Amino acid sequence: MDALFMRRTMKLPYCMVNGGNNKDENMYTVKIIHEFIHGPIWVYGPDGVSVWEYPLIHNDSILTTLNEKAADMFDGYYEFDTHDVPCWFDHEKEKAEKEIMLDLITQIVARLNEINDGSFVVEDLESERLRAL
Fold first, then answer.
1. How far apart are CA 47 and CA 41, in angstroms?
2. DSSP H helical segments within the chain, as ranges?
3. H-helix or E-strand spanning residue 121
């Protein structure tokens, strides 16, 4: 089963991760960070718990397209049952394509800032990691 199929067909449980401190306790936090089978856009409620749907973001066709492109690209760095291990990450491919990914992340952050109605803050945790590759 490949990563793209898994991401698009599996219903994953809520991610109970602490979303960090928001500037306003009623604001959402949108974190930009890559994870397997998930695009780089992660939305956390005011309580710090990841939420699956945030209409302002998830109903935006531009963000959806950019998020899927970045997710497909990142998931493509994983290989299964190769290199004598069950799951292998191709760091060299990621490094070779970092400028493309940085461009996608920049577009995502710009679009989030464009549609932001003041109900969320954006934390880009991915760009710095990518630049350091």
1. 18
2. 3-9, 55-58, 61-75, 91-96, 98-115, 127-131
3. strand 120-124
64-94 pLDDT per residue, tens: 999 999 999 999 999 999 999 999 999 999 9
Both tokens assigned to 14: 């809520």
The CA-atom distances, in angstroms, between 31 and each of 39, 82, 84, 87 are 11, 31, 34, 25
Say how far apart CA 133 and CA 129 lie, in whole Å.
Answer: 7
pLDDT exceeds 90 at position 5: no
DSSP strand pairing (85-89 vs 120-124): unpaired
Rounded to whole angstroms, the Cα distance separating 49 from 40 reads 16
The backbone region for 3, taken as left when phi is positive above 0, alpha when psi lies in -120 to 50, beta otherwise, is: alpha
Range of the domain at 8: 3-131
Residues in the chain: 133
Task: Return d(Cα 80, Cα 57) in angstroms, integer.
Answer: 32
| Total tally of structural domains belonging to the chain | 1
The DSSP letter of residue 23 is S
